[in-house]
Known about the structure:
Low-confidence stretches of chain B: 1-11, 13-35
Radius of gyration of chain A: 35 Å
Number of helices of chain A: 4
Structural class of chain B: alpha+beta
Structural class of chain A: alpha+beta
Shape of chain B: rod-shaped
Oligomer: heterodimer
Amino acid sequence: MRRAAVLAATLTACAAGDEGASEAGAPDLVDAAAEVADDLAEVAAEDSPLDDVAAAPDADVTAAPDADAALDAPADAMDASVPPDAGPLADGLPVDAVMYFTGTACPRGWAPYMEAVGRVAVPTASATLLGVQRGAPLADGEDRAHGHTIAGSFTVPSVTYAGIAGCCNNGVGAAATLPFMAPAREASSGLPYVQLLVCRKTGPTRATLLPAGMMVYFAAARCPAGFSRTEEPQAHLPVATPAGGLAGARFGVTPPGAGETRLHRHDVTPTLTTASQGIALAGGCCAGGYAAHGEYRGMWTTSEAESGPPTIQLLMCQKD
Amino acid sequence: MRFPPVARRAVPAVALLAAATAWFGSQRSARGGDPLDDGVPAGTVAFFAPGVMCPNGWMPLDSAAGRMVVGVADPSAVGRAVGSPLGDRENRTHTHEFSGTAPIAVRAIAGANGGNTQGAAARTYTVAGRTAPAASGHGFIQLNACVRR
């Protein structure tokens, strides 16, 4: 109802404002606006099934949902951040919102958010992690690689010859436990991403009906009024749902705890295959300690490494 | 400008229609309907809660499907994609090549080379291969990404 009254008043004001610029038509416009105002007043006076819905925008900027945790408590400063004459350039996103854009420049009232450049924003699960960055930011188009180290040993058993150890055939090897160490070459973890402009809301805000269910990052400690903190995405890396995919599905491993670095490693089963060395001696007593020809397989794991994208932890809030 | 009588009657009717459209449109937007002005700048990309499809005025951001979003500030970097998109709930794995050496030392014997091949030659052997696949060790959540038109 309030919107109808506002619209009527706006029309009247516009028509009246046009009076000075128009020579003859202004009175008609004023009359027309007055009629519209009357019509709208009638509409507004009627009971509307949408009245409850119409109350929503007020709730967006003033209501404070109950919450115990500091992170869940809505900020109470939104009203003060909404200047009545914010003008058409103001949008409805609250101050400190951090959002992505497909454009090449931040909209008016927004500024590049350098803290999130080269990083994936992770919905934080802990107030102590707000703003915490992990890893060096990605360069443009960088497919960050990582490596591991492989270390283990091959046990090469012995054979004996019916002969005498010593000079001078050096072709045969000695049985031993052979240490093996090698780097696993650097490779990408294969996690795909798309680069989008990231900006932080700094300008004025006007009260609008932001879409319900919209999830917004905030570089702030609390969700603003009209937003609530949701638990599901916390500490998970958000992935845009692929075609035919299940929105809301969580997968991978349990997210790391506060401050925990999530590492991974690989199983590795290298094989050492020897070359045979023919000797003109029968097998048997008593020249021992010679390496047996064969295939020897190790069953090891690589060293651990971190391979996720660089991140920044931000508050994620859902529009009520 | 003076409107003829018919037009004078038409003005409030048209204005009323426009006003009513705007008003009812705004009411619908509160329920995820067609927002004439939801207060979100064009080009804004946002995730939406599970079960919430892109509202009217928004459309799925296909270029992000199966991908994470990395922020950039360089205009020339906007829209660049890296890697192939994930499938539904795909926990992407990767492998590493490796190559190293394992030396078998000499143990001399008083005998000529011959037909008994049970022994291994003394030399430095190359051991190479590929690790088993492993995932990154992270947790993910799929969320609908939409862009404001």
